[in-house]
Give the backbone structure.
Amino acid sequence: QEISTIQDSKLSAFRRRHLGFVFQDFNLLDTFNNQDNIFLPLVLSNEKYRTMKGKLDPLARELGISDLMKKFPYECSGGQKQRVAIARALITKPELILADEPTGALDSRSTEELLTLFQRINETGQTILMVTHSVKAASHAKRVLFIKDGTVFHQIYRGDKSREGMYEAISDTLSLLSREDGRHV
């Protein structure tokens, strides 16, 4: 659907139904417990509690956050907050998950867990578009696009490359970009 033609009054509903968002800083509401944070897009769509709970329970189990539902975000680690944010993004079963630097606020262990989780989610058919400056995060992807001056400069498809092979291909491309610009990218 051409989103530039959607009326402003209907844009929020379109985003709620078709897109899930995962942010670097989680964007969780500290005055809501984790369950209510996850329920938020469903509440805005006027879902009944029983329906919301039926969607949440299996999702929380899959993400390993069932025991965090009554806690508040400020009581959780960065990795736990990001899993709650992912649950909120997935609860509406959107066609596309948009992830903006989702590993930026995480330690290395939580980063690896999140990237593995994204791979597992992607393998179920969920499309994830992740914006990142992290070569490590990008090396988990099936396809990497390099944007330079607002246009696609280059792309790499995983194919049969290992994660290490992707890491090397991404690093090589960044080195090429750096040499062309005469500065570090």
User: Anything to note?
Assistant: The helical segments are 8-18, 34-44, 49-63, 78-90, 108-123, 135-138, 163-181. The chain has a mean pLDDT of 91. The CA atoms of residues 65 and 80 lie 7 Å apart.
